[in-house]
Design brief:
about 675 residues, alpha+beta, six-stranded antiparallel sheet, four-stranded antiparallel sheet
């Protein structure tokens, strides 16, 4: 019994019915100081609470005071994200409105309604994922759909219902704060604090403790956190402290009026849209800090190694602030869950399929599709949720154009350590890129399929990568020799081939599969992509199981075949040898296969994607290349595309502008 028939995810060709906008022009203007992140209001001025007139049935407009409160709560959580704990990362909040604003199955209008289908949210593969435990007809499996967004949505619901009046909006909570007073400590918590997982838990301890009025507790991660809670009597004094600490001093009996976003008539959908804009801004700020050499950011985040650190044009300037409109309607389910199912995209789409999907669900042209996909530059793959591994870019918290540079195969530095050593070829040139396809082996025939990039570079001699282990011992021994023996002055490693000082391995080396300058992954944090990403730059077809075909380098890559499309070139950066037990420098060592293709490191070798949307002057590949070379051009186009996505399904005039830029001089926004 072969089971149910496979579901055919493949779409038709784009319809070509939406206009392609003119290129956004560089005006020389900057939005610096006018972003959402720049809002500085404390509620003391009536103008801080101004909202535009609105008589619709959707969410009520937001004031800049409300925006500043919510922004700060969002950004705090985003800045706690790490490579291993990224449930509330910027990427999650950027991804959420895409899923929220998809059309529902059988409907032809936008959603953006503060609801998603909850089926399979929270699903995780257990045990070893790469065991082909699922039948092909089970794709898409429980690892698809809206999985991975649950924690972000539940945190936003916490914000939506939080009593801001008795917490952050009126001085009931102060941060950084303290409670002073020699005899104010209660219940022995000065030296033996109560360990809690939320601020509210600490406040409840105070409410349930005789004579307690104040408490202190660190501002905690919303997920998997704990911290010391200390209790104080009314003899203490709640006060603000200097600096940027995270200790909250709270008044458990604060007499301020209660209010929440929900009680004021705001909509979840507007909150989700606002969170996405805050997340993009935070990702840009994270990138700009790294450009200036602050790789961890002022908030001690994961190290971000950027390609153009310290160079002109590295930093991003928004050409204008995001426009945040309100008035979206929440779904009628009464919560953030709905039984209706969204039209879900498939990660195995090729380029034209991706365009057709975005055309049908967002009214996007091909240009807008390529522009929107650049948001994949932030975030990570999660194997236990999707079967896919690794990262799109190694600077996965930095919002920049690296996504395009990667899929375009631009020559770039190879970063595989925390010192951001710029590993290139022997003479310090950026590495040549080679893309291959790989099976992640969740399904019986080997899928889902992911694409992975190799770079033709030296070993990381500066970081002594040959001492790390975890790879074939003969490859490591060869790396050591390449780094330590007969290395010319000024070279990163011993050059392969013959060429002058400064020559590129691409022109000099006749074998990218072996030697000192050879193709290899950033092991453990490989830069990867999905078919829907790669299809924007390369032309290939896809079968019903999601396997790409139609490229010379994919002829041995098919269901239940070799796991890697470059398996002929070897594994782990080491070619396949007739007798693999021989030492790397044994004169009797003989390759199983050596030809022009293996000398090029067995690339997929797909043709350039030449699809051109009607009315567009560029092909899909042209757009990718433009954005890969010109970060500013991408950002200029991204801003209106992001706004169009989060407004999907709402006609002009239905939503009202709550924010279009901050005016520091007046402390108000242009609305």
């Amino acid at each position: 019994d072969e089971g149910p028939a496979l579901q055919d995810f493949r779409t038709g060709m784009p319809r070509g019915v939406y206009p392609t906008s003119s290129d956004a022009v560089e005006t020389g203007e900057s939005a610096e100081g006018r972003w959402i992140k720049d809002i500085v209001v404390d509620g003391s001025n009536p103008g801080h609470h101004f909202v535009p007139e609105y008589n619709g049935e959707g969410g009520q407009p937001w004031s800049q005071f409300e925006m500043s409160l919510i922004r700060d709560l969002l950004v705090f959580q985003m800045r706690q994200a790490t490579a291993g704990l990224d449930e509330l990362s910027t990427a999650k909040f950027i991804r959420l409105p895409f899923h929220d604003c998809l059309h529902y199955e059988g409907e032809d209008s936008g959603s953006c309604d503060g609801c998603i289908n909850w089926e399979n949210v929270g699903f995780r593969h257990v045990g070893r994922v790469e065991e082909r435990n699922y039948e092909d007809y089970e794709r898409p499996s429980p690892s698809s759909s809206n999985n991975g967004l649950g924690d972000a949505i539940e945190f936003l619901e916490y914000i939506f219902t939080l009593d801001l009046g008795k917490t952050w909006a009126s001085g009931c909570y102060v941060k950084p704060g303290a409670v002073s007073g020699a005899n104010a400590h209660l219940a022995g918590t000065r030296h033996d604090p109560i360990w809690v997982s939320t601020v509210e838990e600490c406040r409840d301890h105070c409410l349930n403790t005789t004579d307690c009025k104040y408490f202190t507790v660190p501002h905690l991660r919303h997920i998997n956190a704990n911290g010391p809670c200390r209790l104080f009597s009314g003899a203490g004094t709640q006060r603000q402290t200097r600096g940027s600490g995270r200790l909250i001093a709270g008044d458990a009996y604060c007499e301020a009026d209660s209010w929440s976003l929900q009680s004021r008539g705001k909509s979840r959908a507007d909150l989700w849209a606002f969170a996405s804009l805050v997340a993009v801004e935070e990702g840009i700020q994270r990138h700009n800090w790294a450009c200036d050499g602050d790789r961890r950011s002022p908030h001690n985040g994961p190290i971000m190694c950027t390609q153009f650190e310290g160079e002109d044009q590295c930093s991003i300037e928004l050409p204008r602030p995001f426009v945040f409109k309100t008035g979206r309607k929440d779904c009628k389910s009464g919560s953030f869950m709905t039984d209706k199912k969204e039209n879900s995209p498939d990660e195995h789409f090729n380029g034209t399929m991706a365009v057709r999907f975005m055309e049908d669900n967002f009214g996007f042209s091909a240009k807008e599709t390529v522009t929107a996909m650049g948001a994949h530059t932030v975030g990570r793959f999660h194997q236990r949720q999707t079967g896919h591994k690794y990262v799109w870019t190694t600077d996965f918290q930095a919002f920049n154009n690296q996504y395009y540079r990667n899929i375009a195969g631009k020559e770039d530095w190879f970063f595989d350590d925390d010192e951001c050593n710029k590993v290139g070829d022997a003479w310090g040139n950026k590495g040549h890129a080679v893309w291959i396809a790989k099976m992640n082996q969740v399904y019986r025939s080997g899928g889902p399929v992911q694409w992975i990039q190799k770079k033709v570079v030296c070993p990381n001699c500066a970081a002594r990568s040959y001492d790390r282990g975890g790879r074939h011992p003969q490859r490591l021994a060869q790396d050591r020799d390449c780094c330590l023996v007969d290395v010319p002055e000024g070279a990163q490693c011993r050059p392969d081939g013959i060429g002058p000082i400064g020559s590129r391995a691409f022109n000099r080396d006749d074998d990218f599969s072996d030697g000192c300058e050879y193709s290899h992954f950033i092991f453990g944090r490989d830069e990867a992509a999905m078919g829907s990403d790669m299809g924007l730059r390369y032309k290939f077809d896809v079968d019903i199981r999601g396997f790409p075909y139609g490229c010379p380098g994919l002829e041995t890559f098919y269901p239940s075949g070799f796991r890697f499309s470059d398996v002929i070139c070897g594994i782990d950066g080491r070619p396949r040898f007739v007798d693999p037990s021989l030492a790397w420098n044994d004169p009797n060592l003989e390759r199983v296969t050596k030809n022009d293709w293996t000398d090029d490191a067995c690339p997929a070798d797909c043709a350039r994607q030449d699809y051109q949307y009607p009315g567009d002057s560029r092909t899909l590949a042209d757009w990718v290349d433009l954005y890969a070379d010109n970060q500013a051009a991408w950002i200029r186009e991204y801003v209106p595309v992001m706004e169009k996505m989060i407004n999907n399904g709402y006609d002009d005039g239905v939503l009202v502008t709550s924010f279009s830029g901050y005016d520091a001089a007046s402390g108000a926004g242009a609305v």
